[in-house]
Amino acid sequence: QVQLMESGGGLVQAGGSLRLSCAVSGIIFKLYSMAWYRQAPGKQREMVATITTIDTTVYGDSAKGRFTISRDNAKNSVYLQMNSLKPEDTAVYYCVGAGDWGQGTQVTVSS
């Protein structure tokens, strides 16, 4: 059974940074692409960033130039470094992989 455990969310002021982590178990992590999605109140879930097994990355428009996705196969983990945060980045952030979703971690950006 796949388990994805996000951490690192919290409250930050606009312009600040956060680093989200996702620890993955139950799969051969290095064989799977991973992704971060987010959902803001009253809005649909949107893709933030994806990373393939060979470290190819794709970013959603809202993340380009500010966020960086990375992975550490030795630690079965995927990360999302978020810089220059804006109030509109406020959302629950989900780690996604192997067809499963984590529980999410709340990110709140104050103006």
What number is the mean pLDDT?
Answer: 97
What Rg is obtained from the alpha carbons, in whole angstroms?
Answer: 13 Å
Q: Distance between the terminal alpha carbons, to the nearest Å?
A: 40 Å
Strand content: over 45%
Number of helices: 0
Rough shape?
globular
Low-confidence stretches: none
Order of helices and strands: EEEEEEEEEEE
Q: Which class of secondary structure composition applies to the elements?
A: mainly beta
What can be said about the biggest beta sheet?
7 strands, mixed
Number of strands: 11
Helix coverage percent:
under 10%
What keyword list fits this structure?
11 strands; seven-stranded mixed beta sheet; 0% helix
Structure, explained:
This protein has 111 residues and is mostly beta strands. It is built from no helices and eleven strands. It has strands spanning 3-7, 10-13, 18-25, 34-39, 46-51, 57-59, 67-72, 77-82, 91-97, 100-101, 105-110. Strands 2, 4, 5, 6, 9, 10 and 11 form a seven-stranded mixed sheet that branches. It has a four-stranded antiparallel sheet with strand order 1-3-8-7, with no helix packed on it. The mean pLDDT is 97.
Blueprint of the fold:
Blueprint: E1 3-7, E2 10-13, E3 18-25, E4 34-39, E5 46-51, E6 57-59, E7 67-72, E8 77-82, E9 91-97, E10 100-101, E11 105-110
Parallel strand pairs: 2-11
Antiparallel strand pairs: 1-3, 3-8, 4-5, 4-9, 5-6, 7-8, 9-10, 9-11
A few lines on this structure:
The chain has strands spanning 3-7, 10-13, 18-25, 34-39, 46-51, 57-59, 67-72, 77-82, 91-97, 100-101, 105-110. With 111 residues, the protein is mainly β.
